[in-house]
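RECORD TYPE: protein structure
NAME: DNA-3-methyladenine glycosylase I
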Amino acid sequence: MVDKLITGSDDQERCEWCDAAPEFLHYHDTEWGFPVVDDIRLFEKLCLESFQSGLSWRTILNKRENFRAAFAGFDYAKVAQFGAVDRERLMADAGIVRNKSKIDATINNAQRMCELVEAEGSLAAFVWAFEPDPETLSEPQTATTSAASVALSKALKKRGWKFLGHTTVFAFMQAIGLINDHAKGCVIRDRVKQARQAFEPPKR
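PREDICTED:
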């Protein structure tokens, strides 16, 4: 299968999907696939991928600032303290996805995050231990899951995390650089590769 590319206004080739909506280009060029180590950003990405389940990424990306405001900037220690009043507030917030199961899962996952950080030192150290060998991966953009995403999903579920199936976790792994899934020929693919080479993952 040949990776699909589009040619941008700068005459550079990019992943075809970034041409699907105007806001995708900046996200594609500056965020998607670049390695992430900050725990709050990692928690945010896990939560947003969870909310995206069954919806379009465009919906979530357009609401991201609203999600950040609603969930205390995804400071997991603060979200872990959310109670009934916060749940009611979130269910009434039209700026986010008002799905009770996903909201409850986010609060639960914040609590599990606190436990994980205490046990492992950081979420970053935990998730980067699941980085797959690039040689074991299929061609870019042809898969929606992998052995590594299944393993990470199972590990999180074992610790009590919710709403994080292996497809959702695979999307998370793509987003934070555990997998470089930019299409071959995409101008950003090499930039992500260079960023990963300069990046030292934390150890558990």
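COMMENT: The chain is about 50% helix and 5% strand.
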